[in-house]
Amino acid sequence: MNNERPAPIFPQGINFKAPGEQAPSFVKGSLNIKVDEFITWLNQQNKVWVNIDLKEAKSGKYYLALNTWEPKKVREEMADHSPAPDTQAVPF
Predict the structure, then answer these.
(1) What is the pLDDT of residue 62?
(2) Is residue 60 part of a domain?
(3) 10 or 72: whose pLDDT is higher?
(4) Which of 37, 40, 51, 65 could be disulfide-bonded to 8 (CB atoms 3.0-4.6 Å)?
(5) What is the rounded CA–CA span in Å between residue 43 and residue 35?
């Protein structure tokens, strides 16, 4: 089994910035968005929803990365392998 993680995909036109020392405790950080760049990047994703994760690097710095997880099509596979219902076995 290959345990290597794919290289992160960094969103273009958006950055996370940790709060400054003077920020109140309820401020956890800020997102800085360069609108034109971010919209162009979003349009290139060809999806209805784009999920972006806030992650912490080994160095302790935070960064944003595209969440590329997609669910497996388990329901479709199960439907293909399910036996036909036995309607004559139903007692009512």
Answers:
(1) 94
(2) yes
(3) 10
(4) 65
(5) 12
Domains in the chain, number: 1
Confirm whether 39 is domain-assigned: yes
Q: What is the pLDDT of residues 59-78, one digit of tens each?
A: 999 999 999 998 887 655 55
In a domain, 5, yes or no: no
- Rounded CA-CA distance 79/77 in Å is 5
Tokens of 71: 């669910």
- Of the candidates 56, 43, 49, the one whose C-alpha atom is nearest the C-alpha of residue 8 is 56
The model's pTM is 0.70
The dihedral over CA atoms of 30, 35, 40, 45, expressed in degrees to the nearest 10, equals 30
User: Within a domain: residue 89?
Assistant: no
Residues contacting 87, CB < 8 A, separation 6+: none
Structure token digits, residue 33: 């968005």
User: Which residues form the domain of 22?
Assistant: 14-83
